[in-house]
Specification:
Blueprint lengths: L6 E5 L9 H8 L4 E7 L11 H20 L4 E5 L2 H12 L3 E5 L4 H15 L4 E5 L21 H10 L39 H6 L4 H13 L5 H4 L12 H6 L4 H12 L3 H22 L21 H8 L6 H13 L4 H14 L4 H11 L5 H12 L14 H8 L4 H6 L8 H4 L7 H6 L15 H13 L6
Parallel strand pairs: 1-2, 1-4, 2-3, 4-5
Amino acid sequence: MTDDAPLIVWFRRDLRLADNPALHTAAETGRPVIALYILDDETPGPWAMGDAARWWLHGALQTLAENLAKRGATLILRQGRADGVIEDLIRESGACGVYWNRCYEPYAIARDTRIKEALGGRGLDVQSFNGSLLFEPWTIQTKQGGFYKVYTRFWHACRDRGEPPAPLSAPDEIKAADSAIQSDNLADWGLLPSTPDWAGGLRARWQPGEAGAIDRLRGFLDSGLDGYTDGRDFPADPVTSNLSPHLQSGDIGPRQIWHETLRCAGWNEGTEKFLKEVVWREFAYHVFYHLPSLPDAPMYARFAEFPWVDDDEMLQCWQQGRTGYPMVDAGMRELWRTGHMHNRVRMITASFLVKHLLLPWQAGEAWFWDTLVDADLAVNAFSWQWVAGCGADAAPYFRIFNPITQGKKFDPDGDYIRTYVPEVAALPDKYLFAPWEAPDDVLRDAGVVLGETYPKPVVDHKKARERALAAFKSLPSGS
């Protein structure tokens, strides 16, 4: 092995230079670095990236390539199964090793283990690191050696470990590898929509990439955390961090968020509430690592007997924001327009799908997977099971969000609904959350014709609630 043999740094969910342990360690060796990203749609199977996440990936990779170039390195893009791509690149470049930051999906663990054993068996330097979590899933255990299923206990277990490590700085310089190494052209990957171009709302709202993540974090912290505890549930108020898509792609890491938050705000009520949300993400990964079937099967076996309804028409009404419930429709339209949805509204819309419509949570999970810019397999599956009542620390089955009262409580002035459901914008606040209750003259004055300009409700809330409760009570008892 010669001193100038390069190291491959395989980027995955860590599309940044700062706090990137694999890149940091490789750069410190002084060897040339081949920065590699592989678009592998085959290995994830049905969980290959959805369209919104692919749009985000394009921007994040573009930014990563620019940042690497400023430090002397080139981002190499290759498409195909990671095993074969890496073998090809080693042969082409004479690389002496491969470094990466760990992923935690079952298919990723199996793939990475296979690659590490194959390359390590030939004497190559293969190292993996934690670049995505505060605490890796196997490091937090109950006193009995199992995994946590209740969030509060998980939070305390994490806090008992002390502060997570400080983030690493970005390398000042990265020694370039052979410039003759061939790379795909990012534009040829087709990650961006062509016709129709549905990404206008995404472009208006988001700046993918490391700089966009840092700007968003600093903007969030500069605005102060004083109103976060109470204000984070109100979708019309811009008090949440909106960092989830940056975390998903690795534009920023949780250690950076944790330590920058404490540096700027200290430890107070708002800080704790925000950092608990960061650790909620960790909890999802913790459960997913120990229950790899989480995206497909209910955590508790008795829910496999749930009498779900098969109704494509109802599913489309929900997907397109045509349920007749303005708070639900506003959320689904925000999702389609921006690739994102406020967390409180995610709970409302998800509850409506599984409890008002009795449609399986997997159908909602699949739709969110395709339309969210922050689509994350662990968090998406975990959250849908939480709402459906069949997952860890789940909302009890009898908790059925009333979309009318939820709207009145968390969008009291109707600003959120009026933004995304303009058909009912002229209604008085009194009737905005349940247009069908408005007298004919009020509807007429507001230009609303139910069933024409805006849908009639697809289900009656009271009857739907009773049906859901009966369905849940029909399940066998036990785990």
